[in-house]
């Protein structure tokens, strides 16, 4: 038994002494990633086309997967959204933004970069800065995978501004003004809307804004709904009319006005023609 314990200790010490991975900061792959970001700042797409493998996989911060053609299109879209793109210097002192390459004992190689993205939005006109972390997996001298970690809200904001400028947003905003019918108190409305909110969350992932506002006396309610597309509003209408809440809703509220704003499809107009809807097209601003 004593010999077995000695052997286990010896094995443990050997395992601790043998590194599983080697980390470097001034190797060819780390330098290649520095060059990659220099080329991004220069809007030189050719270097990216060369260094990324034709079979590369790209995973964005929300888990969407793209391949090389989609990745290159995403970079080109970046150039359409922003000017003056830059990142911080990476000098190897480990005190700020850096890049490093890790070579594992099984032969897998990853290069990691943490840095700060800075640019000026072409459509908002606003300067933006945010931290990011990216990881690149290599096969020989080609990148076969990129995984991204950062807050995407800056890009969403700029894309919304672009859609507004070009009047191409498919998003639809619904504003409904209602009176609260006799026999229903403010507390009744609060309890019912809480139930409605949960139903929307459980069943309608593309109803991204759903808000009730009530007057001080509890007699009037305004409902704001936002949908990513007209098709999502049609989906909402189907769920509402065939769901468990329509009977109570119609008893509790009376429509005073229903305004549908945005680039609405004819299919949506046909679907809700039974409701007293007034349609208003985009003329300025943007929809988050």
Give an account of the 3D structure:
The chain has 288 residues and is an alpha+beta fold. The protein folds into two domains: 19-166, Nuclear Transport Factor 2, Chain: A; 172-280, Alpha-Beta Plaits. The chain contains nine helices and 13 strands. The strands form two sheets. Strands 1, 2, 3, 4, 5, 6, 7 and 8 form an eight-stranded mixed sheet that branches. The chain has a five-stranded mixed sheet with strand order 10-11-9-12-13.
Layout of helices and strands:
Blueprint: H1 2-17, E1 21-24, H2 28-41, H3 45-51, E2 52-59, E3 65-67, H4 68-81, E4 82-86, E5 98-104, E6 109-121, E7 127-139, E8 142-149, H5 153-166, E9 172-180, H6 186-203, E10 207-214, E11 220-227, H7 230-241, H8 246-252, E12 253-262, H9 266-271, E13 277-280
Parallel strand pairs: 2-8, 12-13
Antiparallel strand pairs: 1-5, 2-3, 4-6, 5-6, 6-7, 7-8, 9-11, 9-12, 10-11
């Amino acid at each position: 038994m004593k010999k077995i314990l000695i052997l286990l200790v010896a094995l443990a010490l050997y395992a601790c002494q043998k590194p599983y991975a080697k980390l470097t900061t001034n190797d060819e792959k780390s330098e290649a990633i520095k060059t990659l970001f220099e080329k991004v700042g220069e809007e030189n797409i050719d270097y990216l086309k060369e260094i990324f493998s034709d079979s590369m996989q790209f995973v964005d911060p929300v888990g969407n997967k793209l391949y090389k053609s989609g990745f290159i299109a995403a970079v080109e879209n970046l150039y359409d959204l922003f000017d003056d793109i830059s990142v911080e210097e990476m000098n190897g002192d480990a005190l700020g933004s850096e890049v490093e390459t890790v070579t594992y004992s099984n032969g897998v190689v990853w290069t990691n970069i943490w840095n700060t993205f800075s640019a000026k939005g072409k459509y908002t006109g606003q300067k933006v800065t945010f931290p990011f972390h990216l990881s690149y997996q290599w096969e020989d001298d080609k990148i076969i995978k990129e995984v991204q970690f950062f807050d995407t809200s800056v890009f969403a904001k700029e894309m919304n501004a672009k859609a507004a400028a070009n009047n191409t947003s498919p998003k639809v905003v619904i504003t409904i003004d209602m009176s609260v019918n006799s026999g229903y108190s403010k507390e009744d409305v609060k309890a019912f809307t809480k139930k409605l909110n949960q139903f929307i969350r459980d069943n309608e992932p593309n109803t991204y804004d759903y808000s009730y506002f009530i007057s001080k006396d509890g007699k009037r309610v305004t409902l704001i709904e936002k949908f990513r597309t007209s098709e999502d509003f049609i989906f909402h209408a189907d769920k509402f009319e065939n769901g468990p809440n329509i009977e109570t809703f119609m008893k509790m509220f009376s429509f005073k006005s229903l305004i549908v704003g945005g680039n609405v499809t004819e299919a949506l107009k046909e679907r809700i023609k039974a409701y007293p809807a007034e349609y208003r097209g985009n003329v300025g601003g943007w929809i988050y």
